[in-house]
Amino acid sequence: MKYLFSILTVFLFSCDYNDISEENATHVKRIASLQDSLIKLNRELILLKLEHDTLKSEVSAFEKKNSYYNEDFLMFISKFAEDKEFQKSRILYPIPIHEEYGVEASDYELTKETWDTNQFKFYPPGYHLFQNEEMEYLPTNYRIMNWYGIESCGDLKFYFKGVEGKWFLYKVFHQG
User: Are 95 and 169 in contact (CB under 8 A)?
Assistant: First the structure.
């Protein structure tokens, strides 16, 4: 055993440690350099993810504000017809009113104080819902409730538009 220890000691002292330590130092420096690069790339990745999330949020907010992300219209119109205070809160005042009776026509505006909540009646059998002023079924930020019949005294249209996710009445047309 003593003999083996002696051989091992001679072998170890005869190795050139300078070459090994220089090679190790080079590897350590390379590893440190790669670690720094990884840290920098990780920071850039985190910043890019934050920027992506921010842009995604801004795009989502823009789409909601500028497209058709409004409350359900049929739920809205039901509450609009039933709740007078809700109705008054969902009208863009002053609201233009256009009325035609035969050859006579008149245009005027109503304020919150002069709006008659009783004039809005919900007649399900006689109404049609359109999504634009051409009265076609297209995806828009507008709705037109059109009643035609005896109950509405002719042709009565209520024009609604979506504003920041909520529906508002903005114009009335009555042809009797």
Answer: yes
Q: Could you give the count of Cα atoms lying within 13 Å of 107 in the half-sphere of its Cβ?
A: 2
Give the mean pLDDT of 1-15: 53
Rg (CA), the chain: 38
Relative to beta strand 166-175, strand 142-149 is unpaired
Q: Which of 174, 140, 175 is nearest to 160 (CA)?
A: 140
Q: Is the dihedral of CA 72, 114, 109, 172 positive or negative?
A: positive
Distance CA 24, CA 16 (A): 13
12-32 pLDDT tens trace:
555 555 556 777 888 888 888
Query: What region, left, alpha or beta, does residue 75 occupy, with left being phi > 0 and alpha being psi -120 to 50 degrees?
Result: alpha
Which H/E stretch holds residue 127? strand 127-130
Q: What is the mean pLDDT of the chain?
A: 76
> Which H or E element spans position 116?
none
Q: Can you give the length of the chain in residues?
A: 176
Q: Is the peptide bond before 94 cis (omega within 30 degrees of 0)?
A: yes
Q: Which helix (H) or strand (E) holds 38?
A: helix 17-66
- Between CA 119 and CA 86 the distance in angstroms is 14
